Amino acid sequence: MANIKVLLADDQELILESLHIVLSMEEDLDIVGLAKNGEEAIIGCEQFQPDLVLMDINMPVMDGVAATAVIKERMPAIKVIMLTSYKEVEYVLTALNHGAEGYLLKAIHPKDLAAGIRVVHAGGTLITQEMASKMIKSMHGAPAPISNEYGLSTREIEVLHKLASGLRNQDIAEALFLSEGTVKNYISTIYSKLNVKGRQEAIRKVRDSGFTDH
């Protein structure tokens, strides 16, 4: 059987190199590319066509959640495992919502990481029971009519809530662990989907739709 082609994405060089060294020791894994942000991960996927991406969540330029959304839209066959040092549920939930196959904490033992890659490559998912129950609760407990009406993603709704609260782009970026450039990209997509030209018009439109801020 052919080896599993893996692309690694992490903005911390030490982690990136450690992952590269550790996973290269596994006979059935080939590390085909390294990326330091979400944009590089997308380019790497287009260039190397890996079977699987190990994707950090918090990265500059474009975070791992946004990059996962793009990769899954353009190259749905590529599987994505989120690598995170946090336990923030919403980031993992959003990534899973965009089609990621699971997540692993960075503190995982290298052998377990390699085993996780094989599980996902074989068609499995990596979601803990705790996360699965949070996903179910979030699906049942988060009415978001605008999401269906305008096709906004979970992340776009988060940005929209912050906009409606009057936060500036820089504040939104800090609150959601994104770069300011990524926030601007989200906002322009939101305006396009809502068919509005600016912040006030967007806020008015969502309030008229009954989509009020929490």
UniProtKB/TrEMBL annotation:
MF terms (GO), sorted A to Z: DNA binding
InterPro entries, per database record: CheY-like_superfamily (IPR011006), NreC/VraR/RcsB-like_REC (IPR058245), Sig_transdc_resp-reg_C-effctor (IPR016032), Sig_transdc_resp-reg_receiver (IPR001789), Tscrpt_reg_LuxR_C (IPR000792), WalR-like (IPR039420)
Per the UniProt entry, what are the Gene Ontology biological process annotations, in alphabetical order? phosphorelay signal transduction system; regulation of DNA-templated transcription
Write down which residues bear the modification named 4-aspartylphosphate: 56
Which residue ranges does the record assign to the HTH luxR-type domain? 145-210
SMART domains named among the record's database cross-references: HTH_LUXR, REC
Q: Superkingdom, according to UniProt?
A: Bacteria
Query: What Pfam families does its record include?
Result: GerE, Response_reg
Q: Which UniProt keywords apply?
A: DNA-binding, Phosphoprotein, Transcription, Transcription regulation
Q: Does the keyword DNA-binding apply?
A: yes
Q: Which residues form the signal peptide?
A: none
Q: Which residues form the Response regulatory domain?
A: 5-121
PANTHER family tied to this protein? TRANSCRIPTIONAL REGULATORY PROTEIN NARL-RELATED, TWO-COMPONENT RESPONSE REGULATOR
Q: What is the name attached to this protein's record?
A: Response regulator
Organism field? Paenibacillus lutrae
